[in-house]
Amino acid sequence: MSFEQGVYYALGAVGLFVFLSVMVLALTWIERKGLARIQMRMGPMRVGFHGTLQPIADAMKLVVKEDILPSWADRRIYWLAPLAVFIPALMLWATIPLARDAVLANLELGLFYIVAFSVLSVMGLVMAGWGSANKYAILGGLRAAGQLVSYEIPFIMALLGVAMLVQSLNLIEIVDHQARWAHILIQPLGLFIFLTAGLAELGRTPFDIHHAESEVVGGPFVEYSGAHWAVFFLAEYINTFTIAALTVLLFLGGWQWPGMPFDGFLNSALSVVWFLVKIYVVIALIIWIRGTYPRLRIDQLMAFGWKLLVPLSFVNIVITGVVLFYGWPLWTLTLMSLILLAGTFYLIATYRGTAMERMTVSVHPARIARPEPAVALQQEAGTSTDG
Amino acid sequence: MAQPQKPQRRREPEIPVAPVALDKKGDALLALLPEVFEAFDVEFGAAVDEVVVTAKPQDVPAICRLAKEDPRLDLTYLRCLSVVDYEERLEVSYHLFSLDKRHKMVLKASVPPDEPFVPSIVSIWRGADWFEREGHDLFGVVFQGHPNLAPLLLYEGFEGFPGRRSFPFHEYNEY
Amino acid sequence: MQVQRQPTQQADTIDLMVNMGPQHPSTHGVFRVVLWIDGERIVRAEPHIGYLHRGSEKLCEGELYSQVITLFDRLDYVSNLNCELAFCLAVEKLMALEIPDRASYIRVILCELNRIASHMLFYGVYGLDTGAMTPILYGFRERERIQALFETVTGARMMHNYIRVGGLRHDLPEDFVPKMAELMDHLKRGVEECDDLLSNNEMFIARTKGIGPISGEDAIEFGVTGPALRAAGVLEDVRISEPYSIYDRFEFGIPVGTYGDCWDRYYVRIEEMRQSMSIIEQAMEQMEPGPTVSALRRITRPPKGETYMRTESPRGDFGVFLVSDGSDKPYRVKVRAPSFANLQALQHLFRNAYVADAVVILGSIDIILGEVDR
Description:
Chain A folds into two domains: 1-64; 72-351, no CATH class. In chain A, 65% of the residues lie in helices and 2% in strands. Chain A has helices spanning 3-38, 54-64, 75-92, 110-118, 121-131, 135-166, 171-177, 183-186, 188-202, 213-216, 227-251, 264-292, 298-326, 330-350, and strands at 362-365, 375-376. Chains in contact: A-B, A-C, B-C.
């Protein structure tokens, strides 16, 4: 690697880190405000104009907080776990393009790289659970491991569906392929699977049981405080941003802006802005889901993943393959996808465990027993209160 | 908060007693009970609107089971199980109710405070479990046959029975 | 954690003991359940109560009857007026006292409003237990409206000390009728909105249907009452089996479930809110101006005797066993708290449940530790 390349990569890494930090800060603010508005509240209002400086205040507070180490905890694993979750989250961004020429390293095996690195954070969660020496943490960590590993399969299969369509794993080529038709129009089923599996990968409602407050009180993160917890927090938000970015790249056309009149630098800058707008639309959807839905229990979550999403993702690949092999026009794929998607929703709505088969509560008019007028017995009948 | 005891003003030397006011169902039940419980040595009476059956402590489980299973009585629901301290005796009250027939009865048994043994009725109503534990905890009544008479409301190592009138409650200082 | 060096065939598995300790976001108060779990299934559950024991029953023995009412406020601190009503009705039964009609109507209206407020709290907290973080704010919005009305009537949002032996503390304020009409409007829409948000949600149904069922016979045997008993299919409500106050003048419905699972217990409470609103409307129509307190001595001195008074609190059968020796202080007050009895069935409800269901089942019984521990 020459000196210029080295400088380029170093500056790019720093720039990426700064960009991600700013995005994460903005994301925390948006999440708090969004959830608040769904819940008829205002959200942060005091720190800065409408709370815009709140994330900075939060960051400062977390850094200054005391770092508590439980006495029985395994020190090395306890300290390493946040890093094991944070570093893969950052590494993913090495290959995610923000515009055609705004990417750190556009790898030919971009999607493969992303999939490989996203699995590493599972280990970090298990380390966090174990290293905390707390039964709730262990429970949460193991639940997290099971959940994350299970949902990797539909996640990867949905990615594979797109890769088959584009015949490449290169992210920029995937976006270029959507110049006419975004992949959401061709593979709506793929988008559903990717978004659902992505939510489960993130550990967000409705799949956040492993760190649910009302149950395992934070799960693997229960014993972390201060800067270490901040690192976990940061990693989760970077992952959210990543999943949203991937959704946009793979299915919503990335930075494609058909008919953009500009060229050169302005083209790139506006492409980045448009890309970010799309990402934030997806994030708004994720926040909306968080504010509305209850969470699934761990066994229901696993059943949903293995019994519904995995077969569905395989079917997605099969129909994509069939359409590509026989050279059918792409709208046949759209049609089959939509039919399968409608079928899935129908199944969910009528499945015995989640459906309201019949109303089990009925209202009966009260049969009033009118009280008889009190008749005072003679005192000789005796009261036995004196025993 | 506790009030210092004021000397009673001598207005009426006699304390009025609440008049008994049984309704039709109470009358019918009072007429029926001697027949149902003829095997037991019990006394019948009434208190305001309740039919009261006073029995010996050893007979309590048998009477309760009969009350629950006899189709004429059908007293399937145990409303409450309470202990009252009357200085020279502890009185355990079992308040029963019939959900279908909608009549009610109170079964009482008195035990001396130094030997407060009453057979437990947990085998008849599982819902008597914690009521008996509380009676034991606060009053010292020992319910024989109860599977687990551990303290329920008071902390481990609490000495004394705070429910009893003799317990120095209002003068009690923990420090 | 020690690693047992044993060949796998002889390895002894022990159940993991997890402490849902007194400090836990979902135990609805200071309450401790020790769970023995095998993987994800609960093998045994041991509830420990007494963290909030204040000796209320004993305190009552040293206070005048009008002072005891403040103690009863703090038993079921979410539905205070219902507890006050139970005590006052017990004393009035002992004294064979006639309560003026208007006082009874106001009592019923306020107690039913308190029932709605209590169920709204249950709704909000239950949504939070299952993971939905929005219902609690919707529920509390309705509860705030009711509490604002309470403040104009009784002077306090929660510990009202308003229902007295012989009637009420004072009459309603001048602007009560229009405020009540407005409140009814809001509540109707609020209850429908709350119902819409959670009841038919697939994930909520998956979390609550078939979880923690109890049969009618078991419920009666455990002494479970209130919405939990009605959800199990038993048509039993103290307001109809032993009508007290003026409940026999109203036409209302009793919601009854089928399986006695968590969803039934939840939905019975939603329906009860609607029925309460119907009772309030009927009471507002029937109420006429008049005195609100019967002529009484300043210090209540009931005759010697004892009574047992049952009322239907939002949690179930709230009973007061009052023993009077003729003086101005009660001789013995025993409070039969519905949550105390309902909690005995916890081990039975947990019998085939997962750890994640523990919170959902506990939430569906709707306990208030103030009345469990007294």
